[in-house]
Amino acid sequence: MGAILALTFGTFAVHGIAPGRERDWILIGVMFQLPHAVAVFALLAWRDRRAVRAGAWMLAGGSFVFSGILDALALGAPRALAALAPAGGTLMMLGWAWIALVALAGDRLERPSR
């Protein structure tokens, strides 16, 4: 879903919005959302485990919030909404930190079979 939104808004920005602040907001959102969408798929292909899925959800959610707020601002949402954008960025950072911990922990996070 994140990749589709990034491509849709990116295309809209390039072809439907004149250069300026609003276009820049959308393109910044795309710049964050598209690579994170790819990262989610790569992480799940790497290791489809609960701990990895948790990190993938943090990345997806964070990029959706951050990019969605920038997109909304570009489309005329109240500027006060910008105060919520750091929540999305923070969630992406937490997701990457979580994935790093999962990678460092390796198989120690797996429950022993009974």
Strand and helix layout:
Elements (H helix, E strand, L loop, with lengths): L1 H15 L4 H26 L3 H25 L10 H21 L9
Helix pairs in contact: 1-2, 2-3, 3-4
| DSSP strand content | under 5%
Helix count equals: 4
Question: Biggest sheet, open or closed, and with what strands and sense?
Answer: none
- What structural class is derived from the secondary structure elements? mainly alpha
- The N- and C-terminal alpha carbons lie at a distance of 37 Å
Q: How many β-strands, per DSSP?
A: 0
The average pLDDT score comes to 92
Poorly predicted residue ranges: none
Choose one word for the global shape: elongated
Give the C-alpha Rg.
16 Å
**Percent helix among the residues?**
over 70%
> How many domains would you count in the coordinates?
1
H/E series, N to C?
A: HHHH
Provide an overview of this structure.
This protein has 114 residues and is mostly helical. It has one domain. 76% of the residues lie in helices and 0% in strands. It is built from four helices and no strands. The protein has helices at residues 2-16, 21-46, 50-74, 85-105. Helix 2 (21-46) runs antiparallel to helix 3 (50-74). The chain is elongated and about 50 Å long. The model has no long low-confidence stretch (mean pLDDT 92).
